[in-house]
Amino acid sequence: MSYKIIIDSCGEFIEKWKEDHRFESVPLTLNVGGETIIDDESFDQISFIKKVAACPECPKSACPSPERYMKAYDCEADHVYAVTLSSELSGSYNSAVLGKNLLLEENPEKKVHVFNSRSASVGETLIGMKIQECEEMGCSFEETVEKVEAYIEEQHTFFVLDDLETLRKNGRLSKVKSLVASALKIKPVMGSTPEGTICQLDQARGINKALVKMVQHIVEKAENSQDKVLAISHCNCKDRAELLKNALLEKIDVKEVVILDTAGVSTMYANNGGVIAVL
């Protein structure tokens, strides 16, 4: 059976997917100071980081329309899957579901499933990899959905922020706390809840100490890690991502490691120097 995997643009694409017609990235749009930027292959990370730093307002994102998702679903593939940013962080999941319902009104026999990643960035990438693995193993549509939903339940997302300006601009960190954190070089270690919201797990003075604490939190959650893929994304800090990978591989065994640079939406969340890890 043929298949297609659609991932909203918060999820980074591994290189081999970019020329594979079975994969499609559906872009969100970003807004910085009134300028609209499409989160597609034309996204310029360095230029975007500079624009965010220069703008006093918080950057914002807008999810794809239901019609855009419907267009992506309307294909010849027998099995169609969509993976979206956590429904707690964006309207992308709801839009994807509405797009599915629109398609099913016209083609009720079409097999389409939308996965709420309850994550972001490379969390979505890993889910896309899991879907492909199930399809290549010959799983039925229903078996794939069941296995991937179970995989999402076991997934854990962690990230460390080096630049807290976006948190300050969007009101999640007061100006006073932001100034204190900057003065003391305090870096938060963040994670995802089972529902897909963001929570603070820890903090440390300095980015390297924060990374050490993040490693500790990842190792605590690393059950059966030898059967899993470790995915790391970074915002303009590849050396930091490699450092994190090496620190983790000293403590746990994994099946594979994937390191990717953040796309547009992930860049907006992580900001310059941010690192995301999903296992």
Question: What is the secondary structure topology, with strand pairs?
Answer:
Blueprint lengths: L2 E6 L14 E4 L2 E4 L2 E4 L6 H10 L5 E3 L3 H8 L5 E6 L7 H15 L4 E6 L5 H15 L4 H14 L2 E4 L4 H5 L5 H10 L1 E7 L5 E8 L1 H14 L8 E6 L3 H12 L6 E6 L2 H7 L4 E4 L1
Parallel strand pairs: 1-2, 1-6, 6-7, 11-12
Antiparallel strand pairs: 3-4, 3-5, 8-9, 8-13, 9-10, 11-13
Helix pairs in contact: 2-3, 4-5
Identify the notable features of this structure and list them briefly:
4-stranded parallel sheet, 6-stranded mixed sheet, Hypothetical Protein Tm841, Chain: A,domain 3, 2 domains, 279 residues, alpha/beta, Rossmann fold
Describe the structure concisely for a colleague.
This protein is of the alpha/beta class and 279 residues long. The chain has helices at residues 45-54, 66-73, 92-106, 122-136, 141-154, 165-169, 175-184, 207-220, 238-249, 264-270; strands at 3-8, 23-26, 29-32, 35-38, 60-62, 79-84, 111-116, 157-160, 186-192, 198-205, 229-234, 256-261, 275-278. A hairpin with a 5-residue loop joins β9 (186-192) and β10 (198-205).
